[in-house]
Amino acid sequence: MYPERREEFRDAVVNYMHVPKSGGTTMKECMKVIARRRHMTSPVLLHTDSRVKETESILNEDESGIMRDIPLFMGDYSFGFCDVIHEKVGKNCSAFIMLREPFDRLVSHYFYCIKLNQSVPGIPDCRTHPIKEWAMSTKSILWNQLFTDIDCSRRQDGKWQCATNCKALPNAYILSQNVSYLQSVVASLDKHFSVIGLTEDYPNSLRMLQLAYNMSFYDVCSRINYNVGTYETVDPNRPYLNKEQTRNTVVKGRIRLPWVKRLPNPKQRFAPLPRLLSGVRLESL
Predict the structure, then answer these.
(1) How many CB atoms lie within 10 A of CB 72?
(2) Which DSSP state fits 233?
(3) Which helix (H) or strand (E) is 28 found in, with range?
(4) Tens of pLDDT along the chain (285 residues)?
(5) What is the dihedral of CA 54, 60, 64, 69, to 10 degrees?
């Protein structure tokens, strides 16, 4: 969060990129409450199909279009939407994201998949397959979001038509095996997001959002806590399997990797974030 840009953020359209199983239900409800209290238009959801639809709406509307007056956007596939707002609407747009400790997010996503009791074509069934097989097919959710494009072109009638483009993903996953490339992507996140919050340090993340956008994220939302503990931490069909045990299994497998073994204190690097964040103060973020 850059202090010199706070005034710019406070007049900006706010776009929240939701990473699943990272406190998104709570944050989206928080933004709805803020919108109601400030008498704003309710936030617009940007999922895969709706992101395409809303992008087309902005490109095809005139200056009086209703999309130009919406101050809040949020969704799984909102990455890059600020470019559309800035270039086509002529407004400042600021994006933020909440990140969660990767292993905790992965395990939570896996158990949530079990809770949904459904399978996805091409993905090993989480109800019957171990987490490693399932995770190798689902891959990184954040990576999918960052490298999925929305391509738009004009039709013969002059209207814009957009579609989701995932062609960059295979090459992006190959490059992700290169540690230097991965580090460069992580290092550039602050060029795309004005605020990067942590699910494990939710109160301070809300304070940063309130400070950046001059909206009552902390004052209003610090007591909102949706979708926490609403599904089992143990798979009823596999009672021997629980979240803590699953996380430990994943971490142990990760620590055995050759490049991880070369890191200083690899076990400490994969410690749960709440322990790593103990003693961290807002002014140090």
Answers:
(1) 21
(2) S
(3) helix 24-37
(4) 555 555 667 778 999 999 999 999 999 999 999 999 999 889 999 988 889 988 998 888 754 455 666 899 999 999 999 998 888 888 889 999 999 988 889 888 988 888 888 788 888 898 888 888 888 888 888 988 999 999 999 999 999 999 999 888 888 888 887 888 888 888 888 889 999 999 989 999 999 999 999 999 999 998 887 655 555 555 566 655 677 777 777 666 654 555 444 555 545 544 554 444 433 333 333
(5) 20
Burial of 142 (0-12, 13-18, 19+ CB in 10 A): buried
Longest dimension (CA), the chain: 61
Residue with tokens 């430990």: 248
Structure tokens at 97: 């994201």
First to last CA, the chain: 9
8 Å CB contact between 85 and 93: yes
Nearest-angstrom CA–CA distance, 228 and 200 = 13
Burial environment of residue 195 by CB neighbours within 10 A (0 to 12, 13 to 18, 19 or more):
buried
The model carries a pTM of 0.81
